[in-house]
Amino acid sequence: MSAYLDSAATTRVDPRVAEVVLHWMTREFGNAGSRTHDWGTKAKRAVQQAREQLAGVFDAGPSELIFTSGATESNNIALLGLAPHGESQGRRHIISSSIEHKAVLEPLEHLASRGFEVDLISPGPSGRVSVDAVRERLREDTLLVSLMHVNNETGVIQPVAELAGLLRDTPTYLHVDAAQGFGKLADDLKQPIDMISISGHKVGAPKGVGALLIRRRGRDTVPLTPLMYGGGQERKLRPGTLPVPLIVGLAKAAEIFEKEHEQWWSRAVEFRTRLVKALDRTRVHFNGDQEHVVPHILNLSFEGVDAEALIVQLKELVAVSTGSACTSASYTPSHVLRGMGLPDDVAANGLRLSWFPDHVEDLDVDELVNEIAEFQAGAAYFA
């Protein structure tokens, strides 16, 4: 089995999380909406404890967090759910960036078709949107700024904490897609950000569960309109039977990540340092601002090398991708790298390496880099 270097796409479910999930699937399997017996009461109590714990990660109250199927659904609830308020107030201007995940860009495209003006900032080669670029675009009719926390392809950290301070005393709301940053940069997400989307499967929880934090401004809550109806669960914003095992699993994963964060971070940095040093023997370009990145995502392009061909060459050794799992099957230049203004040959051949320390313990970095160097030498020979 090849070493796993695609953790930005998904992570393995932590065995300790899997144990908890299985318990709530097979032992205490009650419906949290059933209030006439102990099975339902225990399930409801487990959900409430999970909600309190997860809200605490953001320094928020439990009533400010709803459970969803993941960041994609959370993004849709935040963006599309705020639209009716914008329409009623005559505020149809939205600021975002050209490097957002498709789970943000496509809802924004839908809003543009409804008459909203979507202003996408191109961050330049650094891949980091500046606070000044946002400030310069703010208008009286700006309804929302939506900016990701950590870019899923480059790992570049965006200045969401600074933006929260800029926007908090204005009528403009701030939404942050924190799928990649949740658990890794906790302090950023404790800032007064109005809405935060997360996914469990980026931090060792199962796929299919996430959350949307909807932070109050004093006594006022973000005026969201539901996208679905039927049951009234989750403050009527996300109806349906709550997936108790997945919710409890998400809370357990967040608890583990918080307790082991310092060790995880240092081990991720150590692996990155070894990998970058070994790559000195190749002709490589690192994409994005390397001074503002999470330690477990590295985006690079090898001179004269087709990324897809290299992935095939390396498949017995490592599992890697060209970018987002939602778009990597399209074999088109990365919209993120193109949004950074990088040349098409770079954007078409960016390679994303992403890891959790436990997944790469047995990987021989020198063997990996030797394989890349030999492939690059062969590509140059036949060029």
Kindly summarize this structure in a few lines:
The protein has helices at 15-26, 38-57, 71-89, 102-113, 131-137, 160-167, 244-259, 261-278, 307-314, 335-339, 344-347, 365-382; strands at 3-4, 65-68, 93-97, 117-121, 142-146, 173-177, 195-199, 210-214, 284-286, 297-302, 318-319, 351-354. With 383 residues, the chain is an alpha/beta fold.
What is the secondary structure topology, with strand pairs?
Blueprint (H helix, E strand, L loop, with lengths): L2 E2 L10 H12 L11 H20 L7 E4 L2 H19 L3 E5 L4 H12 L3 E5 L9 H7 L4 E5 L13 H8 L5 E5 L17 E5 L10 E5 L29 H16 L1 H18 L5 E3 L10 E6 L4 H8 L3 E2 L15 H5 L4 H4 L3 E4 L10 H18 L1
Parallel strand pairs: 1-11, 3-4, 3-5, 5-6, 6-7
Antiparallel strand pairs: 2-8, 7-8, 9-10, 10-12
Helix pairs in contact: 1-7, 2-7, 3-4
Q: How does this model look, in words?
A:
The protein has 383 residues and is of the alpha/beta class. The chain folds into two domains: 3-11 and 261-382, Aspartate Aminotransferase, domain 1 (Alpha-Beta Complex); 15-258, Type I PLP-dependent aspartate aminotransferase-like (Major domain) (Aspartate Aminotransferase, domain 2), CATH 3.40.640. It contains twelve helices and twelve strands. It has helices at residues 15-26, 38-57, 71-89, 102-113, 131-137, 160-167, 244-259, 261-278, 307-314, 335-339, 344-347, 365-382; strands at 3-4, 65-68, 93-97, 117-121, 142-146, 173-177, 195-199, 210-214, 284-286, 297-302, 318-319, 351-354. The strands form three sheets. Strands 2-8-7-6-5-3-4 form a seven-stranded mixed β-sheet, with helices on both faces. Helix 2 runs parallel beside helix 7 (244-259). The radius of gyration is 21 Å and the shape is globular. The two termini are 32 Å apart. The mean pLDDT is 94.
